[in-house]
Amino acid sequence: MENNTDSFAEKVGDRLDEIFGDTEESVEEPVPEVVEENTDLGYYPLRFLKATVLSIDWEITDEVMARFMEQVERLKETHSDDKILVPMLQMLHSTGKHVRVYRENAHPDSLKILKSIYVGVEKVITSKDMDVQDKKKILSKEITKFQALKAQIAAGQLAHVSGETGTVTKNLPDSASKTATAPADAGYPMDPEITREFFISAFGELKETIQKEFDLLRNELKLKNSK
User: Fold this and answer.
1) Cα distance between residue 130 and residue 123, in whole Å
2) How high is the pLDDT of residue 193?
3) What 8-state DSSP symbol labels residue 182?
4) Furthest CA-CA distance within the chain
5) Concatenated DSSP letters for 33-51?
6) Among the four 143, 174, 178, 184, which has the fewest Cβ within 10 Å?
7) Beta strands in 23-160 (DSSP E)
8) How far is 92 from 212, CA to CA, in rounded Å?
C-alpha cells in the first residue's frame, strides 16, 4: 500500500511540475490557424463558436464578445462531464473575458491564446478516434500557454501601477519572472474591481483544474490496482 501511495504522490508531483514548473515554451509559439471550412463541424454549437472566433479577427465589440461568452457557456453545459473539455472551455472563457474587458488594450497575445485554445477544443470535439492521452496532452499544452499569458498580464499590470520601467519580477513566481519584462507604458488600464474579478476567476478555474487532475490520477490508480 505504501508503494501505491508513493507512486500516486510521484504522479501528482510530476503533474504539478508540468502545470506550475518552469518551461521554455513561449507564449509567442505559432498558433494554428483557425481553418475556414471544416466539414466535421456539423455540431452546431461549435459551428457558431467558430464563426464568432473568426469574427473577432475583424472587430472586437461588446456584442461579439457577449455572443462568444454565451456560446462557450453553452458548450460547458453540454460537456459538463468531460474532464478534458471543461477546463479548456474555462480557459477559453477567461481569455475571452480579458479581451472583452480591455478590447484594444488587451494583452497582444490574448487573441493568439484564445485561438489556440479554441483549436484545441475543436480537435478534442471533432476527433472522435483521438486517444485520451492525446487529449490530455492538448489540455496540458493549453494550460501552459494560459499560465504564461496570465503571468504576462500580471506583470503588465504591476508595471502600470508601479510607474517604473524595466523588469518587474519582485513578488512574482519564477514562471512569471521569465516573462515579466513589460515597460510601464505597456501596462493595461487598471479597473480594480474588474482586475480583481478576473484574477479571482482565473485562480478559481486553476484550482478546479488541479482538483480534476487529482481526481483523474486517483481513478487511474484505482483502476490499475484493481487489475
Assistant:
1) 9
2) 47
3) -
4) 60
5) PPPS--TTTTSHHHHHHHH
6) 174
7) none
8) 17
Give the DSSP letter of residue 83.
T
> Cell 483502476 identifies what position?
223
Which of 124, 116, 127, 102 is CA-nearest to residue 197? 102
58 CA to centre of own chain: 22
Q: What is the pTM of this model?
A: 0.56
**pLDDT bracket for residue 185 (50, 70, 90):** very low
Residue 76: Cβ-neighbour burial (10 angstroms; 0-12, 13-18, 19+): middle
Place of cell 515597460: 183
> Residue ranges of the domains in the chain?
2-226
The DSSP letter of residue 184 is G
Q: What local confidence, expressed as pLDDT, does residue 153 receive? A: 86
Q: Per the structure block, which three cell numbers stand in for 47?
A: 459551428
- 92, 132 contact by CB (below 8 A): no
* pLDDT greater than 80 at residue 92: yes
- Quote the DSSP letter at residue 30: P
- Residue 96 and residue 205: Cα distance in Å, rounded? 14
